Amino acid sequence: MNAHSQQSDHPVDYQALAERIRGWGLALGFQAVGITDTDLQGQEHRLQQWLASDRHGTMEWMARHGNKRSRPEDLVPGTLRVISVRLDYRPAEVADSWSVMADGEKAFVSRYALGRDYHKLMRKRLQKLAEKIQSEVGEFGYRALVDSAPVMEKPLAAKAGLGWQGKHTNLLHQQAGSWFFLGELYTDLPLPVDEAGQDHCGSCRRCIDACPTGAITGPYRLDARKCISYLTIEHDGPIPERYRRAMGNRIYGCDDCQLVCPWNKFAQNSEEVDFSPRHELDTPELVALFDWSEQDFLDRLAGSPIRRIGHERWLRNIAVALGNAPSRPNVIQALNRRRDHPSALVREHVRWALAQHDHRQEGGSTR
């Protein structure tokens, strides 16, 4: 990152610039903009403990970059400040989550993934924000980041005043809940920093009690290896059998800890058209999704964050949901159509699912 140069001999009023940056960010469609320094020393220790206890599971990339995740100035040399932004994503017109999860023949997809992928949209807006700043101060050092590098985005956002990390470890805001994305602009500008967000979880433990697999092992402690979002998205191997029934019909992600959080009654719906449900993904039929060919998967999920898990994991996840579905002929037939699938991973999960139905038909219970 190169040191910035000014367009004139006049010194920059960084206080005034910070205010303009917030205004530009809001005009670009972000719902909040905050500024913080790069000191994450306390969070670095907690991250190291989390990694040392293997709670990141197979996400080896979490440990790959050493301390660059917790030291922004090591990731992008010259970084002095981080501009953190929030973009709300909850669609206005969407099927009720609990109703979808209660219907065993439907599939539940985490509400952040119903529409188009947010990464490009946010990165373009951050780039435009950087260009606005550049038009004011001249060339300066920056890097726009949206899940594209090792960044502790939630601790940075909390330090920048965008909220606090709740007991489920997601970022929360008193007026916005948690249904939002985060992005960052690393910069070498010595901007004034905002006051950090304060914790307002109090004695509430609804997220801890609601987690289907017990992944929230205590206040502010998450074991990713048990988390349905991790298991259905990040994990590329077999889903441990002990968690399969608890997954229910959640085929991509899990929103339970957000759905029960009292602060989300204040959350605002997004006006972003890109986040509206595509292909009726807010209330799809499991059997229909399971019958998608790989080309169907690629075509229908073009531009979707779901596409990155690939067709094999998609079928793996749906096979588990079909194993938890009512024992109806169309469900059994769909599973049998995939029992000789070329992927050993898919075949194993199909066999498990069929065994669940066999057990029920024999008078047993899998619940």
From TrEMBL:
Keywords: 4Fe-4S, Cobalamin, Cobalt, Cytoplasm, Iron, Iron-sulfur, Metal-binding, Oxidoreductase, Queuosine biosynthesis, tRNA processing. It catalyses: epoxyqueuosine(34) in tRNA + AH2 = queuosine(34) in tRNA + A + H2O. Pathway: tRNA modification; tRNA-queuosine biosynthesis. GO terms for molecular function: epoxyqueuosine reductase activity. [4Fe-4S] cluster 2 binds at C211, C227, C254, C257. It holds the Pfam family Fer4_16. It is found in: Cytoplasm. [4Fe-4S] cluster 1 binds at C201, C204, C207, C261. Its cofactor is [4Fe-4S] cluster; cob(II)alamin. It is an enzyme of class 1 (oxidoreductase). InterPro entries: 4Fe4S_Fe-S-bd (IPR017896), 4Fe4S_Fe_S_CS (IPR017900), QueG (IPR004453), QueG_DUF1730 (IPR013542). Cob(II)alamin binds at R69, D147, L171, L182, S229, C254, D255. Residues 189-221 form the 4Fe-4S ferredoxin-type domain. Its EC number is 1.17.99.6. Binds 2 [4Fe-4S] clusters per monomer. Belongs to the QueG family. Monomer. This is Epoxyqueuosine reductase. It comes from Natronospira proteinivora.
